[in-house]
């Protein structure tokens, strides 16, 4: 198992964001985390990224407890936060070089990452001067440059133009095919369908449905509904 | 190697090339011209060093370790050793101290001096200062005071018994001071808040992100419901907002609360002003009066600008400017000027009282009145011009503040402004010292009147008159370019 949640609970001043959720995602799998606004998706991903401590329960990434062995877990994962903010005072290339230093990678990965996200023309612009979509491209490059075994993505296609969406989807699928585990939070059903084969649906901090993407599609087909309609019903 | 590269990238984010180039040029010129000049007066050098440390201390006590958004989004998601990163970041932040310290001590260097000791002491003391001040910044309020005691002791020793201050090693280098500095460095390494750093890197969103519910009434907050008039809203939102570090069972956390700022500010200014009056009454020596009044004014003025400028980071253009920007900024500035006036009233009174037996101090009271009328408006313009980043989610800036050419220019402007404000006082001092220059008294008075009138005219132009429109339009545009939303 590459991602394991065991009885995760998180409260914010009395609001229960997560109420004891547990699930497992095997290595090499790709799973979607679906749920209405405020369901606790971002909270879940932050706990796995080792940026938020759960009130109780544990999160494991690559079999390391994120809170107890944070460095081992973080070496194993890549995290794309929602509205990620890179180093705005550095250029695109410097951003990548800096993260290569922080992660102990060789400098060759920098050029690879620039090529993968099509950032060649922007390499010497400061990140603060990029448009929102280009900033998101840089953030994706920073999250994947070390080819992590576990990739946590929070709304990965936000702000991207259509051609970039296509190439980024292709990129994530390639990473998945070469062994990376994907865990994606998104509101766009078609993206979940194209990127993942499993679905974990949460609402108000509890898991309301889990299964394969195919089951979900079958449900929709048999009810004669669109997949979004089925999902909306399940989330209620 | 990796450590050095982390420092490199952190420095790159904090300082522009121009800033460093100019600073180093000035340093080089200064070093050449002042080499050996001041060796006769080590005490003066020591006072300057002390003063530098006082400024640093104020800076560090009043701010908290600057966590910027990319630290959470990028740095803390990597496997980098948090303590290693913390030290690298502290070194980058303190990168300009050595420049200041070398500049101050350069005049005492002379050919025969043991340079090896000097360099060793300089490096060790820098390590101490950089780390120790960063430690002070990171820990919560209660422990801040405790941890800053060694620094207070160093400052006090510097004035009372200079030979016992570690800084004296820079003036008269020797092996004992090397050990002294080494011990201090060890102290700063021992007091690194490792627990806090670990917590920050594994629970960043918990430490920084959790917002308490709206504050209880006893802290002077308005529970819910804003007044219905534009002025009322501007006043309430200007006076009941505060962000600071708070202790909690889980550790320290940054919280932004609806507390009436007067509840925090007034006891501070009143108690310091009273303490000032008492000290001023007790001393009879004119030199000491000069020292006390000018240094205190200097510090108040710098703090006034620092605090006053910082609040612009919390502006939300898309909300605030849904009404006419000029109107909005006028109300906001009106409220800010009033707050500044009320907060500094104890100090204005203190200088006026001191003026009864040390006449030049009256001119500082007047200068403070002028500063009250100009700094609330000017400080926001300076902040916008320099490019102070907006504070967004998690009460956090999106990027570190950059030391640039603009920052240097504005620093220069602030120092020129304070020199102008202090001119009447300086003239009065001359009149005190040289009886023959009594003619300077009326000149001082006239100059003070001019400054007061000019400041009032500025305030009128910016806050009351219609013709200030262009200047507010400039500010809005500038903030947009700085990335404010
Ligand atoms: N720092 C915080 N302080 C207080 N409450 C919080 C905090 N962060 C999240 N919450 C609350 O926790 C709950 C879950 O939030 P979360 O951001 O995980 O939702 P989400 O599923 O990502 O929603 P969205 O689809 O809107 O992105 C919400 O009720 C939210 O208000
Ligand atoms: Mg979310």
Keywords:
heterodimer, A: 236 residues, alpha/beta, 6-stranded mixed beta sheet, 39% helix, globular, B: 485 residues, mainly alpha, 2 domains, two-stranded antiparallel sheet, binds adenosine-5'-triphosphate, binds magnesium ion
Residue-averaged pLDDT of chain A: 93
Order of helices and strands of chain A: EEEHEEHEHHHEHEHEEHH
Which outline of chain B best applies? globular
- Helical stretch tally of chain B: 21
The pLDDT mean of chain B sits at 84
Distance between the ends of chain B: 39 Å
Structural class of chain B: mainly alpha
CATH class of the largest domain in chain A: Alpha Beta
Radius of gyration of chain B: 24 Å
Are any ligands bound, and if so which?
adenosine-5'-triphosphate, magnesium ion
Give the count of helical stretches of chain A: 9
Main interface by residue count: A-B, 39 and 38 residues
Percentage of β-strand residues of chain B: under 5%
Number of domains of chain B: 2
Strand count of chain A: 10
Describe what you observe in this structure.
The complex is a heterodimer of chains A (236) and B (485). Chain A is an alpha/beta fold and 236 residues long. Chain A is built from nine helices and ten strands. In chain A, strand 9 and strand 10 form a beta hairpin. Chain A is globular, with a radius of gyration of 18 Å. With 485 residues, chain B is mainly alpha-helical. Chain B has two domains: 1-204, no CATH class; 228-485, no CATH class. Chain B is 70% helix and 4% strand. Chain B is built from 21 helices and four strands. In chain B, helix 3 runs antiparallel to helix 6 (97-105), helix 3 (42-62) packs parallel to helix 7 (115-138) and helix 14 runs parallel beside helix 17 (325-354). The longest helix of chain B has 30 residues, at 325-354. Chain B is globular, with a radius of gyration of 24 Å. Bound molecules: adenosine-5'-triphosphate (ATP) and magnesium ion. Magnesium ion binds at residues 41-42, 82 of chain A.
